[in-house]
Amino acid sequence: MRVRRLLLICAFALAALAQTYKPSPENLKARQWFQDAKFGLFVHWGVYSVLGDGEWVMNNRKIPIPEYEKLAPRFNPTEFDPAEWVSLVKEAGMKYITITSKHHDGFAMWGTKQGPWNIVDATPYKKDVIKMLAEECRKQGIKLFLYHSQLDWHHPDYYPRGRTGLTAGRPERGDFNRYLDYMDNQLRELLTNYGELGGIWFDGWWDKPNAEWRLPKTYSLIHSLQPAALIGSNHHRKPFDGEDFQMFEKDLPGQNTAGFNAESEIGRLPLETCDTINRAWGYNSSDTRYKSVPELIRYLVRAAGHNANFLLNVGPMPNGKIQPEFVERLRGIGQWMAKNGESVYGTRGGPIPPRPWGAMTQKGGKIYVHVLDWPDELLALPQLPPIKSAKLLSSGASVEAIKVKGGLVLRLPPAARDPVDTIVVLE
Ligand code: FHN
Q: What is the pTM of this model?
């Protein structure tokens, strides 16, 4: 009996040890900010943009390192204008940017001192785009997050190798701890020299899930340098200890249409989902399958109904410009947000989870019913808290809301309908 109790105590102690991270007050405040912000711009940009074939081109075309390195002298984004990017972000109604400081090809988009494989030392451009963007974001009141790939197809010490990057031609040896030191040193630079960051968006853990990634060390380094910076990792699992938000790729929380979430589980952290405008993350000159503005707005609304942010991606061109098809769509969403943002910013999902007809968001005693896809005039809702009025957000016109046993029926005549999203405010 005594032994069993002792074992139980040990099990509890071990569980407690495994859950050691206590977010600081600044961090908790930043999480609130993040959840209120709702909409951000994802940017995949690196030397790969020169080939216009996405950010996986090195792996997909089996390009060995010496060949791939020849892209750097060709990467000269002289038309990059951070003020133009950040203004566009604001026009789109976005509140933050998450840009690739380093993608899987290991190329650093800042002037790292940890090696020459970076934009300042290896390209004719020679400028630190992360610094330029960080300064402009600060000026215009936009938060900057950095996407950082843990997976590295270029570094010799990323060894043993994982599932990808096997054709880069690296030596059959390496010291993974030395690689992790290199990564931590790079992160230290980013969290020290670029002002206050919104957070770090990790990706690539999935390349070797069984490796010893030393996450507690890396995560506590970040939290000690910038306690408010939020850590998230796109490992497609339930959040790990030390993380501050959870992301989903090309899917709403709880869904798995893109195949990334077979082992994922929704945790208790703020949520975000990311998606592309065409199919590609990095610039792809032949991918013209653009989503429409209404499609993107509805995705943003459904994400908000799932209590998640939407991080919408662009892959800038090698000259530093964002292609016109993306600009046009971002502006289109921005015009909608300027009119309807009240039903998205600062809200939380619910009270009823999203349904095939649409989604609900709520804040300050109001429920926003977003009717996205419902052909009929009458829409039956389940039991909600008692309401005193139902109005269209667009015009303030009253909406007939009929109380029935077990719920509420809204009457939405054709004249009240908006082809993108009919928003009824219940108060
Ligand atoms: O491999 C990456 C991919 O290139 C891109 O960065 C996306 C963004 O969520 N994440 C990875 C795949 O899970």
A: 0.95
